[in-house]
Design a protein that fits this description.
22 strands, 12 helices, single chain, Rossmann fold, 449 residues, alpha+beta
Length: 449
């Protein structure tokens, strides 16, 4: 129980009247009478609020599985449990988790007179992981607003916030997701593919696809149909250290209204890639190093996708060191069969010496794709045209040259890795998913694994 707005008004009025009575004594009796007249209302208001206010019960309804960056609806049902005098309005404040953003609270609603009353508001999940709404607080004003009573109701709701994965888990066929994934159609040539069936020749088919023995028997052109090789093993390794802890615009990673890290974009792309690989009949393993060390052994079939999501949904990056060499060394010790390894981090010139011993060994046993997320700021600085600008300073020129040199050194490093037989991909967070899926499909169709 605490003082309301009216009691402050009364106190201010009595203080002003007392000041006047000090200089004009006949007003002293007016001050006393005013005080005596106000006291019954103040104490009566207190008794009404404390003992005659009906008790309430509150129930919260919301989804236990949310997606980061996508607002969710929360419904509060407030019911009246006992008889009493209902008056005025009440203010309801839901105690939501720190991982959410909300600008619609508190809710001001009329006191439920009969039955129950439902209200809705929306929250925006700003971080992945587990969350809990612990309680709900109600602030009730007394009839004359001399007092305010705050009641806390223990209404707990637990759930999880997952990465952006909408439109993929709906069960639609891969071919319907070209725009989302960035998948490009590549004509199958029969190289690195498994034979599926024979069919009649159609316009646009390659001459190399003709089966000449079947053509001679049927006396018409017969071609071979191929499908990508299946039952291969894919490993996705994510760096959760400082390299991918840089903030990016949420709109570039499939969300809006919040800032995400490059690691969030990498995780979204990794889950999308896992979906495609499982859909192609491959087995998928995942690993995380840096801020969090986690390993999920290879699993096959679409039933493995929920296991992968639940194993990675709460992994977050942090400004801590991460050893790419140790991660690749542990990977080499774990794998027993040839695997397509996708390592997502932010590789720089200083990584060349450390990785020079492990990369050739990995390249002989496995197929390795080194995916590097570049900094958009470096590209913007290197592309600035400062020659014709009258406001150009020496610092601006130095920054532009440093950014250009940084990008050139990165490209030089990737060229060296490509000469070792490795695959490289240097892209931004916004284009990562599309380019990663296209690289995966290219490997499948070219039979590199």
């Amino acid at each position: 129980m605490r003082a309301g707005t009216s009691i402050f008004i009364i106190c201010f009025a009595l203080l002003a009247l007392g000041g006047c009575a000090y200089f004009f004594p006949p007003l002293f009796m007016v001050w006393v009478l005013t005080l005596l007249a106000a006291l019954p209302f103040v104490f009566g208001d207190f008794i009404m609020l404390r003992f005659f206010t009906p008790t309430l019960s509150i129930n919260r309804e919301m989804s236990a599985s949310l997606t980061i960056g996508i607002s969710a609806s929360v419904r509060l049902t407030i019911a009246r449990n006992a008889k009493g005098i209902a008056f005025g309005t009440i203010n309801v404040f839901d105690i939501y988790d720190d991982h959410f953003d909300c600008d619609e609270l508190p809710l001001s609603i009329p006191y439920p007179k009969e039955g129950s009353l439902s209200v809705e508001y929306r929250v925006l999940p700003a971080e992945r992981g587990d969350w809990e709404f612990s309680a709900c607080e109600v602030l009730i004003d007394s009839p004359f607003q001399f007092w305010r009573r705050k009641i806390r109701y223990a209404v707990k709701t637990r759930g999880r916030t997952y990465p952006v994965f909408s439109g993929i888990t709906s069960g639609t066929d891969i071919r319907s997701n070209h725009e989302l994934s960035g998948e490009k159609r590549v004509r199958k040539r029969g190289i690195g593919l498994e034979f599926e069936s024979l069919r009649d020749w159609q316009e646009g088919d390659s001459v190399r696809a003709i089966d000449w023995r079947a053509t001679s028997r049927k006396r018409q052109a017969i071609v071979r149909d191929y499908v990508e090789e299946q039952d291969q093993q894919i490993l996705i390794i994510l760096d959760s250290g400082y390299r991918l802890h840089r903030l990016v615009n949420g709109e570039d990673t499939g969300t809006s209204g919040i800032m995400l890290t490059q690691f969030d974009a990498a995780l979204n792309a990794a889950l999308l890639l896992a979906y495609f690989a499982l859909k192609h009949g491959d087995s998928v393993a995942t690993g995380v190093f840096g801020n969090t060390d986690r390993w999920l052994p290879p699993k096959k079939g679409m039933s493995a996708l929920p296991h992968i999501i639940n194993a990675l949904y709460d992994v977050k990056s942090a400004s801590v060191p991460s050893s790419i060499f140790s991660a690749l060394e542990n990977t080499l010790a774990r794998l027993r069969r040839r695997t397509f390894i996708i390592c997502i981090s932010n590789f720089r010139e200083e990584d060349e010496e450390e990785l020079s011993r492990i990369l050739p060994l990995l390249g002989r046993r496995h197929l390795l794709l080194m995916v590097s997320l570049c900094e958009d700021e470096a590209g913007a600085l290197s592309n600035r045209n400062l020659s014709n600008s009258p406001d150009t300073h020496d610092d601006d020129i130095l920054l532009s040259e440093a950014a250009s040199n940084y990008i050139a050194q990165r490209k030089k490093l990737y060229k060296k890795w490509e000469h070792l037989g490795l695959l490289t991909l240097d892209t931004s967070a916004a284009n990562l998913s599309a380019k990663l899926i296209n690289s995966f499909l290219a490997v499948k169709r070219q039979g590199l694994l």
